[in-house]
């Protein structure tokens, strides 16, 4: 991507420099309803208008991306909230497993022994909420 940027930027820069050198004559720009007249070299007016258009277009694109940025922030908040809930549930599960292990007699099999049916295992996490 870096090379593509240079491949595009370098020729455009050369064209802008050649345009500026070839168009140094002074011109008068008249803004009719305002009665303002500006005298400047042609290349300054043309390149300046391109720059103003670029800035205005970038600002409009930034404004139109506001909804997407907001959705991204909300998704990040939801993901962080889900991670906090997952950590809480893991700690709770470990704490409950520790309490069960402490209450079990030393010769008894563990609660999640494979010999027990799957329905007897009580340490399952609840189903995810939508």
What key attributes describe this structure?
single chain, 130 residues, mainly alpha, rod-shaped
Derived from helix and strand composition plus strand pairing, the structural class reads mainly alpha
- For the largest sheet, list the strands in their spatial order: 1-2
Distance between the termini: 40 Å
Describe the biggest sheet? Answer: 2 strands, antiparallel
Radius of gyration from CA coordinates: 34 Å
Number of strands: 2
Given the structure, what is the number of helices?
3
Fraction in helix: 55-70%
Mean pLDDT: 85
The run of helices and strands is: HEEHH
| Quaternary structure state of the chains depicted | single chain
3D shape: rod-shaped
Beta-strand percentage range: 5-15%
Uncertain stretches of 5 or more adjacent residues: none
Quick rundown:
The chain is mainly α and 130 residues long.
Report on the architecture of this protein.
With 130 residues, this protein is mainly alpha-helical. Among the domains are: 10-64, no CATH class; 66-99. The protein has helices at 2-22, 42-64, 66-103; strands at residues 26-31, 36-41. Strands 1-2 form a two-stranded antiparallel sheet. A hairpin with a 4-residue loop joins strand 1 (26-31) and strand 2 (36-41). The two termini are 40 Å apart.
